[in-house]
Amino acid sequence: MRVTNAVLPGRSEPVTIVTEGGRITAIKESPGVGAPGEEVIDAAGRTVLPGLVNAHAHIDKTLHGGPWVSAPQVETVAERVAHERRHRDTHGLPSREYVASLVEAMVVAGTTHLRTHTDVDPGVGLRGITAVAEVARRYEGVIDIQQVAFPQGGLITNPGTLPLLRDAVEAGASVIGGLDPAGFDDAPNAHLEAVFDLAASTGTGIDIHLHDGGSLGAWEMGLIARMTREYDLGGRVAVSHAFGIAHPPTQAALLERFAEAGVALVSAAVYDAPVPPLRACAEHGVLLAGGTDGINDLWGPFGDGDMLRRAMLIAYRNSSRSDDELMLALDAVTTNAARVLGIEDHGLTVGGPADLVVVDARSAAEAVARVPGRDLVIRSGRVVARDGALVGAEGGNAPPH
Amino acid sequence: MRVTNAVLPGRSEPVTIVTEGGRITAIKESPGVGAPGEEVIDAAGRTVLPGLVNAHAHIDKTLHGGPWVSAPQVETVAERVAHERRHRDTHGLPSREYVASLVEAMVVAGTTHLRTHTDVDPGVGLRGITAVAEVARRYEGVIDIQQVAFPQGGLITNPGTLPLLRDAVEAGASVIGGLDPAGFDDAPNAHLEAVFDLAASTGTGIDIHLHDGGSLGAWEMGLIARMTREYDLGGRVAVSHAFGIAHPPTQAALLERFAEAGVALVSAAVYDAPVPPLRACAEHGVLLAGGTDGINDLWGPFGDGDMLRRAMLIAYRNSSRSDDELMLALDAVTTNAARVLGIEDHGLTVGGPADLVVVDARSAAEAVARVPGRDLVIRSGRVVARDGALVGAEGGNAPPH
C-alpha cells in the first residue's frame, strides 16, 4: 500500500507512506511509483495519525447497541459497584453482543489497541473474561484487546476474588487490576501485596484503579512506587485515574518517584475529577496515557469509544491551547498508551506497524482540537474502516461477523 | 408541516407535531391527515428537541473556516486579551467570512438562537458589531443573533470604551457586557456602575464575564445581585462563567440572592474551570444557561458550535448520570438559555415556535449523553438543515449566501 500526500504529526510537508507486510517500509517526500497492483490511497493533504490506543476501558460492562438504561445518580464508587452488582444480570451483562457493538465503534473511530478492565468476582466469575476473549478473537488483526483481571467488587473485602484473578490470567488476562486499596478495600498493604505477588508470580503487568484523591491517593501512589521498585516491575505498572496526582503538595515529588520507579499514569479525564498534568508528566518523564473509561454502562450513560475526542478532552481539561500542548494529548492516546500496553514500536516510523488513521485536518494539532471524523482506518496495511463503517477485506482476513 | 412518530422530551409515546405559520398548532397522539400539499416528515421514532440556544459565544473573534493558527499557551485573561490585541489585525479579524462560516456550523448543529459577546474598544471600534450585524441579517429567519457590546479590553482601565458601548447599542447591540470588574479592571464599583447605568438608560440587558473565582468572584456576584435589585433589572442580568459560584462557603447563599434578584448564570463548562451546579441552580430557581464560549480563535483552538455536545459537557462536568440529571443539561441549552435571551415561549408546546431538531436517539436523555448528529433542523416550520448541511428553501426565504 502507498498513501500519498499525507501530513504526519510534526512534519510540515506532505509525504508518501509505503507499507508492506503490515509494516511501514518507507516514508518519503516523492510519491514514487507503486508496484503493479499496489493499492494507492491519496490522502490529499489530510493528516495521517498513528493507530489510536485506548489504555483504559470496561467493555465487559457496556450496554452499547442495547436498550437505553438510565444510570443511578449516586455519589460513591461503592454505591456504583453495588448498583451494578444488583442489576447486571437483569440486563444480560456481560453481553457478547454489546461488547462487539462497542468494539466496532472503537475500530471505526481508529482504535487499533485496547486495554480493558474486566470484572472478576465470585458473582460473575470468569464470564466477563471469556466473553471479551471471544470478541477479541473475532476482531483479531483489526484491534488488539488486552484484558486486565479487575477486582471491581474488592479484593481483601471479597475473599473469593483472588483465586479467580489467577484463573483469569490462565484464561488470557495479561494484567492484574486493583481498586482503591485504601478507600474501597480498607486494606492498602494487603491489597497491593496480593496484586504485586500475583503479577510477579504470573509474569503479568499491574494496573490499579485509584479514585482515592488528595493526600490519601498521593500516599497510596507513593506505596505503589515503592513496591514497583521492590518487586522490580518497573515499566509494567500503571495507576489509572490517579485523582490524587492533582494533590499540589506532593505532585512534583510523586512524578519524580514514578519516573524513577517506572510507573505510568492513565487518565480518561472523567467527569469533574482531576486530570493529571500533561506538561508536568512529559517533563518528568512519566508516561501519561489516555483511555475512555466505561462507555454507556450501569455506571454512566456517556461515551462513544472515540479516543481522538478523548485526547481533545484531556487537552481541554489541561487548558492546553498551543499546538505543542495539543501534541502532548495526541501522544497520550498513541505512543504513550502503546507503551503502557507494552508496545514499543508504535508510531509512524519506518519499520513500525502500518496502522494509519486518515482525518480531515491540516495538522495533528488541528485534529486534536477539532476532532474530525475518521475518513480511513488502516490496520497492518489494510483498510479496516472507512467513513465510520467497517470495511470487509477481500484477502480472507475479513473483519468478522 | 406535520412531523409524525416524534419522541419529545419528557414523553414516552411518540406524537405528531403539526405546525402552521411558523408555530406549533397541535401535538397529538395520532398522526392524523395532513392538508393537501402539506409537508410530512416521518421522525420514525427518533427524538425531536426544541431549537438549541447558545447563550454565550464570541463569533466576532473566530477563525472558523480560515487558516489554522496556534493559540498561545498563556495563563491569564490579561495575557490572552493582550495577545489578541497584538494579532487580530494580522489575521483579518473580525472577518465576515469566518463569522458566517461559524454561524453556518451552528445552524446545521441545530442552533436557532445565539447571544454573542462582540469586542468593543477604541482599537476595533464598532467593526465587530457591524460585521456580526451584517452576518446576522444574512441569516435572518434561520438563526436569531443577539449581540452583547463587550468591553473585552477593559472599561475603567480603557477610557475610550464606555462611549463606544453606547454607540454599539445604537448600532444594534441589545445587551451591555462587562469583564472581571475586580480581577481585570481593578475597579469593581465603578465598572459595574458604568454597566448598570448604561443598561438602565438604554433599556438593554446586562451580561458580565466573571472569571474571577473563589471569594473574590463570590463577592462580585453578591454586588451584582444587590445592584440588579437597586436598578430594578431583575430578569435582565446574567453572569457568564461565574467560576466563583463554586466557592463552597457562599454557594447556597449566592444562589438564593440570585433567585431573589433575578440574576441568571451562563456556563460553557470551559477548560478546567468550575461549572455551576445544575441541580442546585434548578432547586434554587436560578436560570443556568449553556453556551460555547469562543470557538477556534486566538484564545484557544477548540470548539465546533455544537450546543448539544456542550450540554453533554455541562452534564459530564456536573457528574450527571441519571436521565433526570441529563434533562437539566438539556434545559440549560434550550428553555433556560432562551429565557436568558429574553425569549419566553421557547420549547415544544402548542403555540410555541416551530423550531425542531430531529436526532437519532430514543430519548432526550440519550441525545444529551450520546450527542448524535442532527438529522433535520427545522426553523419556524421550515427545514433549514439536513444531515450537517444547510438546505436551500423553495419559498423565497432561502438561507443566504
From TrEMBL, chains A, B:
Where does the signal peptide begin and end?
Answer: none
One example of the protein's molecular function in GO is: hydrolase activity, acting on carbon-nitrogen (but not peptide) bonds, in cyclic amidines
Cross-referenced Gene3D superfamilies, in alphabetical order? Metal-dependent hydrolases (3.20.20.140), Urease, subunit C, domain 1 (2.30.40.10)
Note the superkingdom of the native organism. Bacteria
Instruction: Mention any Pfam family matching this sequence.
Output: Amidohydro_3
Q: Which InterPro entries match?
A: Amidohydro_3, Metal-dep_hydrolase_composite, Metal_Hydrolase, Metallo-hydrolase_Enzymes
Q: For the Amidohydrolase domain, which residue ranges apply?
A: 39-86, 144-385
Coiled-coil positions are none
Mind telling me what this protein is named? Amidohydrolase family protein
